[in-house]
Design goal:
- With 383 residues, the chain is an all-alpha fold.
- 76% of the residues lie in helices and 0% in strands.
- It contains 15 helices and no strands.
- Helix 2 crosses helix 5 and helix 5 packs across helix 10.
- The longest helix is centred in the first third of the chain and has 44 residues.
- It is globular.
Length: 383
């Protein structure tokens, strides 16, 4: 069936989402479902679930991979490529500007004040998105509810996401719903793909740009879960191993990722800028997103071809329930870090209630108000 929208319209949507989509991966995947599945009805529920499952199974940033897959659904490789660029480019340009400001003026102390308010509001935004996703994709099926609950608890306890649990959830639902007569491997197309970038060796130009490219390619190829999952990996490399940034600079880089729209992993561009200017930012961002692009479009044809089979559909439903459970757990983890006092708790609660009551209220307006309020309150606290 031909799409009811044009590629230009889809690119325009992802340009806007990349420019105004605050809240990190959990919120972004919720926005895509609300806008493209529920409201515009450009993408079917089945295609969205397949994309979310593939994004959760493959390494790399969750929201960027889902965006690339949704571009692939009706417009194949051209759509995936242009949508991926449209989604990432706005936030990349923003972090370039912030990187230049940071270097020129010796830090971004005001970020802490802005993030004080934005971080709290983001928790409210993500919580609303998770509730909607849960009601739509998990529903009342006890098996999916159990998977959702287990993954939420595991994510809260371990503060990380585990690929084997996602695979196990998919296999469990598959076996319960459609007991197989012989062993079938719905995700085998993904397994060898992780070795593609592993072939990159240390041979080559002995320069800092080469080190940047190699390190961030590994980050994009071998870190599973949401964009936030990449933060510990980046810390061990850029602070501990290479010494490119100090502790304060790294914390500022993560703060930049949280207050800018688009995918969280765009913080790699900010880090690259601090290390090696515009060239470093470009190499870091390209190296991070190229693996997730390849690991989305290569298995995509198999998901499109076989995704409607009962066994594969059951597998995807299991992985989707696990993914939403992990996102719900991430809300709790992020909440413990962002909601540090009565003001932030109140701001997150009010944000959630307002967005639940006024569902058409644009989130960027909420983020802007929260940023201003947070900055004012933080300055008053300092004084």
């Amino acid at each position: 069936m031909p799409p009811v929208y044009t590629l230009r319209q889809l690119i325009g949507y992802f340009l806007r989402l990349g420019t105004l989509g605050f809240g990190g991966p959990a919120a972004l995947v919720g926005y895509m479902h609300r806008d493209l599945v529920e409201q515009r009805q450009w993408i079917s529920e089945e295609d969205y679930k397949e994309g979310l499952a593939l994004a959760q199974l493959a390494p790399g940033p969750l929201a960027a991979q889902l965006a690339i897959y949704l571009g692939y659904v009706h417009f194949r490789i051209l759509g995936a490529t242009l949508v991926g660029l449209a989604f990432v480019l706005p936030s990349f340009l923003m972090v370039l500007a912030l990187g230049w400001t940071y270097v020129r003026y010796g830090g971004l102390s005001w970020i802490q004040g802005v993030f004080y308010g934005v971080g709290a509001a983001v928790i409210g935004i993500i919580a609303v998105s998770v509730v909607k996703l849960t009601r739509k994709s998990v529903g009342k099926e006890r098996l999916l509810q159990g998977i959702f609950a287990v993954l939420a608890v595991v994510t809260v306890v371990t503060e990380s996401e585990h690929i084997l649990l996602f695979l196990g959830a998919g296999v469990l639902v598959w076996w319960v719903r459609v007991p197989p007569r012989f062993l079938q491997r719905p995700a085998t197309a993904l397994l060898p793909l992780g070795t593609i970038l592993a072939q990159i060796t240390t041979t080559g130009p002995n320069s800092r740009l080469w080190d940047i490219g190699l390190f961030f390619a590994k980050a994009g190829a071998f870190v599973f879960g949401s964009g936030l999952a990449i933060v510990p990996f980046l810390y061990s490399g850029v602070v501990k191993e290479y010494g490119w940034l100090n502790e304060k600079q790294f914390v500022d880089a993560v703060a930049v990722a949280m207050i800018t729209p688009g995918p969280v992993v765009i913080t790699t561009g900010f880090i690259g800028y601090l290390v090696e200017g515009t060239s470093g930012a470009s190499v870091a961002a390209l190296a991070t997103f190229l693996p997730c692009y390849l690991l989305t479009i290569l298995p995509a044809p198999y998901f499109k071809k076989y995704g409607k089979l009962p066994a594969i559909k059951a597998f995807v439903d299991g992985v989707t329930a696990a993914a939403i459970g992990a996102i719900a757990g991430a809300v709790v983890v992020l909440g413990t870090r962002s909601l540090t006092d009565a003001f932030t708790i109140a701001l997150a609660t009010v944000t959630g209630l307002v967005l639940w009551k006024y569902q058409k209220l644009p989130e960027p307006y909420v983020i802007l108000v929260a940023a201003v309020v947070g900055l004012v309150v933080r300055e008053c606290m300092v004084v």
